[in-house]
């Protein structure tokens, strides 16, 4: 196969852009010099069609209403969603008043494209948009109840008592489906040629979304205190641990309800009132050009801070249900920190390759296998592995903690830049010998390590190759009970073993790459991509989900809807940036990002450059 010329690569990129957005690069560069209504309208229309979200909402509406009689609304629920997305793509607040202003600025043709039937001349536009948003919320609201006032203790009790748990669960699942149908729509907008380049690697992380009501509220299970915020269904967030926080009064109530519990309270001033959004984002293939496809968010979920139990597997199942095959799944300590039956075991049965970090206590030896193996920091080794290599992770951890403590001490002194650099340099020199020793110990430890062969089987079993060239292997093999074959199949533990052992079969600590090695560092480092997405949707110049005043409608559910549409908007922005990089004739930076002549275009207004050596995509 001959290598494509540079011109054919540009032509391919432009074709992909027209396929995705129905617009070329000139439309996007010129739109940023004026009000970009037309380009944004086309994006919204394409997203609604690609996601088939209208059909989903119509089906829910049919389930909930007793009769289809009556006049159709001028602004239906799908049009409300489209208007929210349009606001975000135009970098405007999602307040009802601001959406009404945008509505009036649209031409009749633009309104028709996104399903707005109203002619825009009536002063009731604000009310009709507000009613459409309320109907949309009602379809997916797991927190039904009053949002018109701060509730008293008795009013809050009555609201909680009036909620049907089964109905709330149904609407929670609808909200999850709504968000993931929308982000899946952005994926479907991409040409198949681009989508097929992704090998299934995903990183997942949660991010705080503040709610209005700085003082927050007592927890939902604490019914003995009056509320302090209209947004009564949020939760307190703290950076440490699982991110869930309790006030001192909540902790006292929880400890009274469960004698022997040791809940600790946190002051309101050290917490933030809000919810968390879970984002699962594509990351590059491990051994390819890192820019083969746009790195968009493909999964989204929502919960009260700290309530992440089940969210990892919930997201994985969603990917599988949508026809994806998750490959490497990269997460932080919060996800594997719970019971392995709720995350590790289901992930293993789906054939997923987990990549994660450990809490300090999970480093070192965690399990002995009866066939002569030992699990150290998530990987399996011959059990003749010397103690010095078994403890290598713990030893370097002490040095790293000492380094971190010194850096924190320096920062507390309010140092100058020169003092900070000098202090970090000195601390780094003290850490360097420990890191060098650790690298050498990892290299020696690898000689004893069992390596994977083939894929994880549908029953969760996995085959490993025995390192027959490991130091002392003949003596190890001669020991009673040592495995004699050159490979071994490790099966999942039995139900009885799972019940009796918190690390049955080593599942709680096992991951795909050996901890601390170069492959692990490379794969785990890709998690920065989802953290980048978190930052993007919080930035003031974009969706700004960190500012609750820009979402005037109260309650968790409208925030969830805005978060979902914000992620869609961020995906669209990432897709545009991807095509820009492929069509750029020079390096893109903030000064030239919107200059049409920077990008190659097929109308020959910009000449194609001379062919030059360049790696294929």
Topology:
Blueprint: H1 6-21, H2 25-31, H3 37-51, H4 53-64, H5 77-89, H6 96-105, H7 108-113, H8 125-140, H9 153-161, H10 165-189, H11 192-195, E1 202-210, E2 235-237, E3 244-245, H12 248-257, E4 272-282, E5 297-303, H13 311-321, E6 328-331, H14 344-349, E7 353-356, E8 365-369, E9 373-376, E10 379-382, H15 387-390, H16 392-412, H17 417-445, E11 451-453, E12 462-465, H18 473-478, E13 487-490, H19 495-500, H20 518-525, H21 528-538, H22 556-583
Parallel strand pairs: 1-6, 6-7
Antiparallel strand pairs: 1-4, 2-3, 2-4, 4-5, 8-9, 9-10, 11-12, 12-13
Helix pairs in contact: 1-22, 3-5, 3-10, 5-8, 5-22, 6-8, 10-22, 16-17
Characterization of this structure:
It is a single chain. The protein has 617 residues and is an alpha+beta fold. Helix content is 44%, strand content 10%. It contains 22 helices and 13 strands. β6, α14 and β7 form a beta-alpha-beta unit. The protein is globular and about 90 Å long.
Please supply descriptive tags for the structure shown above.
seven-stranded mixed sheet; three-stranded antiparallel sheet; 617 residues; single chain; alpha+beta; 13 strands; disordered C terminus
| Residue-averaged pLDDT | 87
Category by helix and strand content? alpha+beta
Uncertain spans: 1-6, 606-617
The count of strands amounts to: 13
Shape descriptor: globular
Q: Give the count of helical stretches.
A: 22
The end-to-end span amounts to 14 Å
**Sheet bearing the most strands, described?**
7 strands, mixed
Rg (CA only):
27 Å
Helix content: 40-55%
Q: What proportion strand? A: 5-15%
């Amino acid at each position: 196969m001959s290598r494509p010329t540079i011109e054919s690569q540009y032509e391919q990129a432009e074709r992909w852009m027209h396929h995705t957005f129905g617009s070329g690069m000139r439309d996007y560069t010129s739109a940023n010099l004026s009000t970009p209504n037309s380009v944004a309208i086309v994006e919204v229309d394409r997203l609604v069609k690609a996601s088939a979200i209208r059909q989903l909402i119509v089906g829910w509406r049919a389930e909930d209403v007793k009769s289809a009689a009556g006049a159709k609304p001028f602004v239906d629920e799908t049009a409300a969603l489209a208007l929210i997305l349009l606001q975000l793509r135009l970098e405007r607040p999602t307040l009802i008043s601001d959406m009404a202003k945008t509505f009036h600025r649209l031409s009749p043709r633009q309104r028709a494209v996104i399903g707005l039937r109203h002619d825009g001349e009536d002063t009731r536009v604000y009310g009709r948009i507000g009613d459409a948003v309320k109907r949309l919320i009602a379809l997916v609201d797991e927190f039904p109840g009053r949002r018109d006032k701060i509730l008293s203790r008795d009013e809050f009790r009555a609201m909680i008592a009036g909620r049907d748990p089964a109905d709330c669960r149904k609407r929670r699942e609808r909200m999850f489906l709504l968000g993931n149908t929308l982000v899946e729509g952005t994926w479907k907008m991409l040409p198949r040629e681009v989508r097929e380049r992704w090998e299934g690697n995903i990183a997942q992380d949660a991010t705080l979304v503040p709610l209005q009501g700085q003082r927050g509220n007592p927890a939902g299970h604490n019914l003995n205190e009056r509320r302090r915020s209209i947004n009564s269904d949020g939760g307190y967030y703290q950076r440490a641990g699982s991110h869930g926080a309790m006030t001192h009064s909540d902790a006292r109530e929880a400890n009274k309800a469960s004698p022997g519990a040791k809940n600790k309270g946190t002051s309101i001033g050290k917490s933030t009132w809000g919810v968390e959004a879970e984002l699962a984002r594509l990351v590059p293939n491990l051994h390819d050009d890192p820019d083969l496809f746009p790195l968009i968010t493909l999964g989204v979920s929502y919960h009260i801070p700290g309530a992440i139990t089940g969210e990892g597997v919930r997201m994985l199942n969603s990917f599988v249900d949508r026809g994806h095959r998750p490959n490497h799944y990269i997460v932080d300590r919060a996800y594997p920190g719970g019971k392995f039956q709720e995350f590790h075991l289901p992930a293993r049965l789906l054939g997923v390759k987990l990549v994660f970090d450990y809490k300090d206590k999970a480093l070192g030896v965690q399990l002995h296998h009866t066939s002569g193996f030992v699990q150290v920091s998530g990987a399996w080794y011959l059990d003749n592995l010397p103690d010095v290599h078994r403890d290598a992770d713990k030893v370097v951890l002490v040095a790293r903690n000492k380094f971190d403590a010194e850096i924190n001490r320096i920062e507390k002194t309010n140092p100058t830049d020169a003092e900070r650099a000098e202090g970090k340099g000195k601390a780094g020199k003290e850490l360097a010998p420990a890191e060098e020793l650790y690298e050498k110990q990892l290299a020696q430890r690898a000689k004893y390590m069992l390596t994977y062969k083939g894929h994880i089987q549908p029953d969760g079993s996995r085959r490993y190759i025995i390192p027959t060239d490991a130091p002392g292997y003949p003596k190890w093999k001669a020991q009673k009970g040592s495995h004699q074959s050159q490979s071994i199949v490790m099966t999942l533990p039995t139900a009885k073993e799972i019940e009796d052992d918190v690390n049955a079969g080593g599942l709680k600590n096992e991951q795909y790459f050996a901890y601390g090695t170069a492959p692990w560092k490379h794969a785990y480092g890709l998690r920065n991509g989802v953290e980048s997405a978190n930052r993007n949707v919080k930035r003031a110049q974009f969706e700004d989900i960190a500012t609750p005043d820009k979402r005037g409608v109260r309650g968790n559910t409208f925030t969830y809807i805005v978060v979902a549409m914000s992620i869609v908007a961020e995906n669209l922005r990432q897709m545009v940036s991807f095509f820009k990089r492929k069509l750029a004739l020079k390096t893109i930076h903030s000064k030239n990002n919107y200059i049409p002549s920077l990008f190659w275009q097929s109308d020959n207004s910009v000449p194609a450059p001379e062919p030059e050596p360049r790696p294929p995509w």
